[in-house]
């Protein structure tokens, strides 16, 4: 029987395999949980070892309503709820991409040639000989493009099914790309100052939390390193029509997601991107607003690209 509060905490953290808290941090957090709910601990363990991510999400949703059993007072209850909420959010994100992996593979770069995006190429620039991280790389189309441009590439993504396709492409046509399963919001698989550049092609708006993601990018970049990303333009008409208010930071359901993309994404106003980059000391050096050829954006370009440089403290 599981009846140790520290075990409960360890189980919660185990949902994300890239989380690597020290024993001291676990001990500090477990010390606040004076109640030892063995049945709840068992159910958490069942949820976090459930091989079907959709089933795991359902189990964790139920458990979020019962976290009062983890501790007898308000502050501890809030901590427990926060841990389970984070675990639930990660599983929701992972399940969303696992679900569309096969359709995504069929739709985007099915031949494994690599990303074809002239704007992306122009912002990335000359990368031959550089160490570059392809953030939220999916099945690796941007990672393959970066490798073809001469970079030494590591791709990271939260979805193992997506990475399975990426690795199959790498086996068929070796480019020297290494793929790692991990959370873009922590990048805990990588040490500080590991990369000359980071790219994130059309994925940042699908990641739940902007600030920790940008902070993690800044951490793994070397001094004067670059960060290039592209997103759906936050001011794009059909996109703004979906959200309740432009200034909100909210998860929304796409009207026409198709079967190759997750059903939900995250809207943030343009100011959130700019201010978060500034806080992380990532200075914007170039901005491109690009019209998507297939959509009417009410006069606003559908895509937004930015290039940033890491500045010294």
Keywords:
313 residues; alpha/beta; Rossmann fold; seven-stranded mixed beta sheet; two-stranded antiparallel ribbon; 9 strands; 41% helix
Summarize the structure.
The chain folds into two domains: 5-106, no CATH class; 110-310, Vaccinia Virus protein VP39 (Rossmann fold). The chain has eleven helices and nine strands. It has helices at 5-13, 23-30, 38-48, 53-64, 74-107, 118-124, 141-148, 160-172, 210-220, 237-240, 270-279; strands spanning 131-135, 152-157, 178-181, 195-201, 221-232, 250-253, 264-267, 282-290, 303-310.
How is this fold's topology laid out?
Layout (H helix, E strand, L loop, with lengths): L4 H9 L9 H8 L7 H11 L4 H12 L9 H34 L10 H7 L6 E5 L5 H8 L3 E6 L2 H13 L5 E4 L13 E7 L8 H11 E12 L4 H4 L9 E4 L10 E4 L2 H10 L2 E9 L12 E8 L3
Parallel strand pairs: 1-2, 1-4, 2-3, 4-5
Antiparallel strand pairs: 5-9, 6-7, 8-9
Helix pairs in contact: 1-2, 1-3, 3-4, 4-5, 5-8, 9-11
């Amino acid at each position: 029987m599981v009846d140790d509060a520290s075990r409960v905490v360890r189980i919660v953290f185990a949902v994300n395999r890239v989380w690597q808290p020290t024993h001291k941090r676990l001990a500090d957090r477990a010390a606040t949980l004076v109640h030892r709910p063995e049945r709840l601990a068992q159910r958490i363990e069942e949820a976090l070892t459930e091989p079907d991510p959709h089933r795991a999400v359902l189990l964790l949703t139920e458990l979020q309503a019962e976290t009062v059993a983890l501790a007898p007072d308000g502050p501890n209850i809030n901590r427990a709820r926060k841990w389970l909420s984070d675990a639930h959010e990660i599983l929701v994100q992972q399940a969303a991409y696992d679900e569309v992996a096969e359709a995504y593979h069929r739709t985007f770069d099915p031949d494994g040639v690599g990303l074809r995006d002239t704007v992306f190429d122009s912002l990335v620039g000359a990368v031959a000989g550089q160490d570059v991280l392809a953030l939220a790389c999916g099945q690796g189309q941007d990672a393959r493009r970066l490798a073809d441009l001469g970079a030494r590439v590591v791709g990271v993504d939260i979805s193992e099914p997506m990475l399975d396709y990426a690795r199959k492409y790498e086996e068929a046509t070796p480019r020297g790309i290494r793929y790692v399963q991990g959370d873009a919001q922590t990048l805990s698989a990588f040490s500080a100052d590991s990369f000359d550049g980071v790219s994130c092609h059309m994925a940042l708006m699908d990641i739940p939390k902007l600030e920790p993601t940008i902070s993690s990018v800044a951490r793994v970049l070397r001094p004067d390193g670059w960060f290039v990303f592209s997103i759906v333009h936050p001011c794009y008409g059909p996109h703004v029509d979906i959200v309740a208010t432009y200034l909100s930071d909210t998860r929304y359901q796409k009207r026409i997601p198709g079967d190759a993309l997750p059903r939900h994404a995250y809207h943030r106003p343009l100011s959130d991107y700019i201010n978060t980059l500034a806080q992380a000391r990532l200075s914007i050096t170039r901005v491109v607003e690009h019209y998507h050829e297939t959509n009417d954006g009410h006069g606003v370009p559908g895509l937004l690209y930015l290039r940033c440089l890491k500045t010294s403290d």
